[in-house]
Specification:
The chain has six helices and 13 strands. By secondary structure, it is of the alpha+beta class. Strands 3-4-5-6-11 form a five-stranded mixed sheet. A four-stranded antiparallel sheet has the order 8-7-10-9, with no helix packed on it. Strands 1-2 form a two-stranded antiparallel ribbon. The two termini are 25 Å apart.
Length: 281
């Protein structure tokens, strides 16, 4: 809770002039104290009341509980190990009298993979299981056929990406940007059959990133790690809404010849700095 308050006073007050009175946090599985939480206003920008009906933690669920254990997980885990590295915090809301369910997550990082595998690949099975668990929680709640017509959003840092923009070059030589699609992602669990919709796809493919990753000039890319996945029904009712990405904080920008253009990329953007996504309300 102190971290939430620090964020509220250090960021929200500066950004919007006030804090959010509704705060929800349940300690999860991370021993370092990295938890998921929700801050909410009492009403939307248009004046509709935001009411919290129920808050539930799913931190205690195991692979066996949801029948998710497989050979890939067996290399490092046991069937009765907990699925979520932090939690899947579940909130039932009423917004202007209409129901909305939120599933707030922070999936396994791409670091600390098995020695013989690249970090993202080596930890893919864990994130895939987390994504499958979220999906099963939702389908158990609304039914396999009923989930598409329900109003839900899956939000948070999912530590994986389905596409990236390769950054090629340096500040001295200038940059060029090449979009690339990933062959596999844990997030395919949500998208492969239309279970959920990523509204960031409504932005230009060069401008969907929330993270700048770099390990020297030979390994640089922009990618989306932070998501608001919408149910098909919710996405359809908000078909014209385009998420905003806040990329403030950079001290300076290179000249246009260095390739900022469609990407919104600033060469001074620090490696690993995350960009919050704002969904229009």
């Amino acid at each position: 809770m102190p971290a939430l308050q620090a964020f509220e006073y250090g960021y929200l007050y500066r950004m919007v002039g006030n804090g959010y009175r509704q705060k929800f946090l349940i300690e999860g599985n991370d021993r370092r104290g990295i938890d998921v939480a929700v801050l909410m206003r009492e009403q939307t920008i248009s004046g509709e009341k935001i009411e919290v009906v129920d808050v539930r933690s799913n931190a205690m669920l195991t692979y066996a509980d949801l029948d998710l254990f497989n050979d890939d997980l067996a290399k490092s885990f046991q069937p009765h190990d907990r699925i979520f590295k932090r939690d899947c915090l579940e909130l039932d809301l009423m917004i202007g009298g209409r129901p909305l369910s939120l599933y707030v997550v922070h999936f396994k990082s791409m670091g600390s993979g098995r020695e013989e595998a690249e970090g993202r690949t080596g930890t893919m099975a864990v994130r895939r299981a987390e994504a499958m668990a979220v999906r099963r929680i939702i389908e158990r709640r609304f039914g396999t056929d009923g989930a598409a017509s329900a109003s839900f959003a899956i939000c948070g840092d999912m530590n994986d990406y389905q596409e990236k923009v390769q950054v090629i070059g340096t500040r001295r030589t200038g940059y060029r940007f090449e979009p690339r699609r990933e062959e596999m992602s844990a997030l395919d669990v949500f998208s492969h059959d239309g279970f959920a919709v990523n509204p960031m796809a409504r932005r230009d493919e060069m401008d969907r990133w929330t993270l700048y990753h770099a390990r020297g000039p030979e390994e640089q890319h922009l990618c989306q790690l932070d998501y608001i996945w919408l149910s098909p029904a919710l996405a359809s009712r908000n078909a014209s809404a385009v998420p905003e990405i806040v990329r403030g904080g950079s001290r300076s920008a290179p000249s246009s010849r260095r390739g900022r253009s469609r990407t919104g990329f600033r060469a001074s953007a620090g490696t690993g700095r995350r960009r919050p996504i704002i969904a229009p309300s």
